[in-house]
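ingest -> validate -> predict -> emit
validate: passed (alphabet ok, no gaps, 72 aa)
predict: started
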Amino acid sequence: MDKNNKIKIIVNGKLLTVNFKFSLKNLIEQLKTPINKVAIELNKEIVDKKKLNKIFLKNKDKIEIVHFIGGG
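emit:
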């Protein structure tokens, strides 16, 4: 695949290269992240998890995935 079909994003501070038209849902699946145990932020805004498949990533997007940790 040529470079024109790729975009660069930052996930939790790490640079990743993904395909153009890559959705946030695709990213979560690729990272094998349990969706019910995380909060997702895209460019400093919390994302509604019901809309993950409708949100397509753009070049230079910044994604933060925060895992919930139980404690007592």
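The mean pLDDT is 92.
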